[in-house]
Amino acid sequence: MLFNTKEFALFFCVVLSLYWLLFKWHTLQKITLLAASMYFYAHLHYSFPIYLSALIIISYSFAVAIEKNENQLQRKALLVTGLCIISAGLVYTKYSTLFFSNIKGLEHWQASALHILVPVGISFYTFSTLGYLTDVYRRKINAERNLLTYASYISFFPHLLSGPIPAAQTILPQFSTKATVTISGIDESIGEIVWGLFKKMVVADNISLAVSYCFAQYHELAGSTLFIGVVLFGVQLYADFSGYSSMAKGFAGLLGIELVQNFNLPFSSKSLTEYWRRWHISLTNWFYEYIFNPTIVACRDWGKGAVVFALMLTFFISGFWHGAGWQFVIWGLLHGIVMSYEALTSKRRKKLSKKRPFLYGLVSHVFVLLFLCFAWVFFRAANVHDAFAILSRIGSAGIITAPEEYVVKYIPWCIPLFVVEWLQRKGTYTMDMQQWHIGETLSSRHAKQINMAVKICLYTLVCVAIFFFYKKQNTAEYYYFKF
Q: How far apart are the first and last CA of the chain?
């Protein structure tokens, strides 16, 4: 069930109605959420809830055991054991093919008995349980003793398949108390859902046609066409993933659960460091908290070398997390190299930015965008060979030829996305009208009426755009489901 389907709309309406009809009985609400999440997951494959349930029980048991134990050595042993068991499923299901393909005689080895247990979204909820277990060990949070509460938190269907990755400290307590919603909360949630649907169904799904064409036919296309294809892939990736995150936040909000914002105008960044503070924020925070920081602490005697090593290790793992292919490792290491450069030259670049702020900002912004395009080739290409072949064609004389009209015609789909998000950059969410102070010179009542009328018109306009410009045959699975 994809968020942008009639099946999900019916499913969510039923769940939402049952959930709020039971508002007086918090335990029944959690049972409803858990049952809905398991049904939602089973809709993809009957075996998926089995794996998820096992992971929930294992992480719950280890967390309770770690909290009860006062012996530091035993606590650490429990933590390491728990992390290894939880990670084993992720490592096996995602990386066994890559590992065995590099062992002579086992290139075609298949573990058919376990292939049914390769769940969609396994990386996201595995990271959630790893972070939770680590936070309990660090005594940042108490282990949740109510299994129903914990299971509802991990399996919560809005963020189950593609994040945002929920931080236990901020989100788990929301499942322990009765949910409430406000008019402004409902308004924000609906805005997130409507705009998320637009990004996914109108922008991402249409652009995906040009992207797929470019990367499939790269050996026949000119460099200019391929370059536009790579740029469009970046837009597709952003519209697809941020659209999913917006919808996830909106659906969760209607159920009284507040998820974190996962994107914040990443393409306006003037450094790669800033970009990663704005792109897939929950994953960036996870890597910072559980990979980068511990590595810095462990290597603190290395001086600046500790920062470089921690960044390279973090982005190596990040690349490997995104896919079991060496092209993803290269993508991660490229980011690690540039991030290391930025970390080592931060003081020098800060002085330079003060001398020529506009020029420095412009050059930095262009560099970030060009670097992202370069790295995206490895992220999207089928393998390393294809990635270098595409880069070779982009760097050839074909870059100055006229691009194919078929690809160019998809560029206008990007315009409404970036114009609207830039104009709404100061709002608490993209469809927020409060920042425009509409009718502020009128009485409070009239101002609210005008504001509501404008908002309804805007929502209607977006829905009409979805109806006319979404083509069912263009429907593509959410890109990040594969991670």
A: 17
**Residue 474, pLDDT above cutoff 80:** no
Give phi and psi for 287, each to the nearest 5: -65, -40
Tell me how far apart the alpha carbons of residues 244 and 275 are, in angstroms, rounded to a whole number. Answer: 19
What percentage of the chain has pLDDT greater than the value 90?
Answer: 64
In the structure encoding, which two tokens stand for residue 242, read together? 């941020």
- Whether the CB-CB separation of 375 and 330 falls below 8 Å is answered with no
Task: Tell me the chain's radius of gyration from C-alpha atoms.
Answer: 24
**How far is Cα 183 from Cα 411, in angstroms, rounded to an integer?**
37
Tokens 């009239």 correspond to 446
The mean per-residue pLDDT over the stretch 295-302 comes to 92
Kindly report whether the global pTM for this prediction surpasses the value 0.85: yes
Question: What average pLDDT does the structure give for the chain?
Answer: 88
What local confidence, expressed as pLDDT, does residue 442 receive? 52
d(CA 13, CA 429): 23
> Could you read off the pLDDT of 231-274 as tens digits, one per residue?
999 999 999 999 999 999 999 999 999 999 999 999 999 999 99
Q: Tokens 């008995």 appear where?
A: 113
Q: Which residue has the tokens 């637009």?
A: 198
166 and 153 Cβ atoms separated by less than 8 Å: yes
What is the distance between the alpha carbons of residues 99 and 218, in angstroms, rounded to a whole number?
A: 28
Q: pLDDT tens digits for 91-107?
A: 887 776 666 566 565 55
Handedness of CA 398, 399, 402, 407 (dihedral sign): positive
Number of neighbours of residue 423 by Cβ within 10 angstroms: 12
316-370 pLDDT tens trace: 999 988 887 889 999 999 999 999 999 999 989 988 888 888 899 999 999 999 9
Show Cβ contacts of residue 394 under 8 Å, excluding neighbours closer than 6 positions: 223, 226, 227, 230, 377
